[in-house]
Every structure is written in structure tokens, then in C-alpha cells.
């Protein structure tokens, strides 16, 4: 079942899944197998030639993972998806078919800390580079794009401050330059924001966060909109030109709108091997069934807590985009109409020392480097997740040394407020 005319919550439970044809098992079984028996020699040859779609080996495809791929693709409004072993793997898998040595990606300064490090340091080993600009400044994005640019990359609701990107405006800039826009939709989830509807070409997720939703899995996914014309220029030869590893097959010519997805499996997973395991896919499928319910509670809790913090004189400011005082408030309606998520930062009076005391005094909030858990989480980004950045980069990202980042869970909001209240008292005593 993957009929896009059903509502979001119906698709979150059913898309991609059907009762097991041999046993009738209603929940998607965990296909804990490495390999699949071929019907005969011709079947094996056809699969290896990409003439027939089927299961060969679980580094490439697995039936449990395939259900998850179809479910996320459906929820995002894409044509296909490729799961991989983590959110960071998904980012490499998204860039891999587009980039080659000497090429660059134009990226937002407001990103998950690990992504900043991946883009500033690690991708250089591949001969790729990233140009960081403020994505609120469209001219800066235009100016950064050059002949060697192959993609534009940002987050929908951006880490750590919960800032909202004007996806439509950024997509128009990418479009005018003939480039794909990649949106990391981890903090929003497709329940709050569907980047493809705002012009994104590819959507990446860390499944680790809200999609699984309970802090038990590491995983990632790349969703393909199927709308980009990879053959319109000679910039994307991996997709438009002959592929020597498949006897000269051209992915875009052969697979049309599914070119990126097929390339992701047939080349990306085959050769990079960043595969999601079926156990992790199973936990994520169970998590996604309750995505809508959880996101409603995450958002309503975040609203209450952000409002409470903003009115407290032990707090200097709160960055939640769902607050009327936020410069991003007017983007909520357009980009994520069901709410601004549950991730934001706040500045504690007393600066760094007070932040540390606050974190150590909390009882319900967990001090961890994660987000999008049912549990409420807190961290001091500048000294942890954004530690590899210099102070200018930290401030540009919104990870100022005097703020803490929270990911508001689905507990009782009054308990969370009481916990913050007692910890703020200790932190500012
Ligand atoms: C966590 C996260 C990532 C990285 O995902 P992993 O699953 O930890 O590799 C990327 N982007 C955002 C926005 C994240 O929150």
C-alpha cells in the first residue's frame, strides 16, 4: 500500500508494507538474511545486469529495509529512497553521485555540528569542498555558486537553534543555476515539513532522531524527488553518461526519474557499503507508525516550554521559531505549518558557568549528544557537538557559548517546566 491519496497518519502506518505472502505475518518481518536464492542462472544474470529488480545480497537490498525505503519516500512525496547506516552516511550517499574531485557544494552555516565537520574537513579527502554561506542571504548563495558547484545543501529546521530556512527561495536559486537542492529534514520530519513540495531535489534524514523516535537506532536515508533533469547539462556524468561498471548503461536514460535511487543502490551501497541493517529498519518502521502522534506532542511541549522560558528573567533569550519574537516566526506557516519542531536553544543569565550548572542540576532532562528522542535532552553545543568549530563558526551556526540546546521530549510539560525551574534556580543562585 503506497497510495499517496491516503492521509499522512494512514501512510505512516501502512505505506510500503503488506502482509507477508507466505505466512500472513501482519507486521513486517525482519528478513535477517545476507543472500537470496536465484530462481535460475538467467534470473541471476538479469539481476546483476539491472535488467530485473530483485534481491541479491543485503549490502544492496533487503525486504525489511525496502519497506522502510518505500515508507519514507511516500511520506516525503518522493519517487524512491535509499536507506543507509547513519545520517552522515546519507549525506555522503547524496553527494557521491553529484561530486568529483575539484567540485564544491554550497552549504548553510546553520547545520548540525557533525555536518559542519564533515563538510569542512572530511570531504576534502575526496577532493570535494564546501562553501559556507548565510542562507538568509540569497545573494550570498548566488555569489558562492560557481562552475564547479554541484549541489546546494541546507537543513529545513536548522540545528541547533531551530531556525527555519526559506526552502522555496533557496530552491529557486539552485534551480536558476541548474543545481539540485539537498535538504536535511531530520529536525522537522515529513510530518512538519515536506521539502520536495518547496522545490528540494533530494531529502536526507538521520533516522536516528525523530523518525525512529526513541533513541535506539542509528540510520539514515536519502529520498529522491525524481524531478531533477540529470541530463540537462554535462555536470552529472555519473547519472547521465555511460557507467563502465554496468556495461555502459546510462542511469538517467534507463531509469528516468528513479535514476538517482538506482544509482544509490547499484553503485553507492554496492561500493561504499554504508548499508542499514534489517533490525534497525524494523525499529524505525515501528517508530514511524507513531510519528504524527509524537510530533504533535513534541511541538505542543516545545511551545509551552519556550513560552515559559522566554518569560523567565533568568533567561536572556530563546531561539524557538514558534515564538512570535523569533525572526523566523513568519516562516513557520509557510515551511512547517504544523509547528516549528522541538529543538531550540536558550541563553542562561550567567553565561557558560550557569549553562554547566543548569545541565548538571536537571533531573528529567538527559545530558546527551542526541535529539529527537521521546525523552527530553539537553546539551551545551559549543563545548560538545560544535566543539570542532571556531567561535565565529559557532556563532554563525547559532551555537553561542552562552546557550544550551534542548530537544523537548513527550513527557508531561509541567514536569519538564518544574525541572527547568529548579535547575535554573541552582544555576543562577
Ligand atoms: C544527527 C544528525 C545528523 C547525523 O546523523 P547520524 O545518524 O548521527 O549520523 C545529520 N543531520 C542532522 C540534522 C542531525 O540531527
UniProtKB/TrEMBL annotation:
It comes from Palleronia pontilimi. One of its GO terms (biological process) is L-homocysteine biosynthetic process. This is Aminotransferase class I/II-fold pyridoxal phosphate-dependent enzyme. Keywords: Aminotransferase, Pyridoxal phosphate, Transferase. NCBIfam families: OAH_OAS_sulfhy (TIGR01326). Pfam families: Cys_Met_Meta_PP. It comes from the Bacteria. PANTHER family: HOMOCYSTEINE/CYSTEINE SYNTHASE, HOMOCYSTEINE_CYSTEINE SYNTHASE. The modification N6-(pyridoxal phosphate)lysine is found at residue 209. Its cofactor is pyridoxal 5'-phosphate. GO terms for cellular component: cytoplasm. InterPro entries: Cys/Met-Metab_PyrdxlP-dep_enz (IPR000277), OAc-hSer/O-AcSer_sulfhydrylase (IPR006235), PyrdxlP-dep_Trfase (IPR015424), PyrdxlP-dep_Trfase_major (IPR015421), PyrdxlP-dep_Trfase_small (IPR015422).
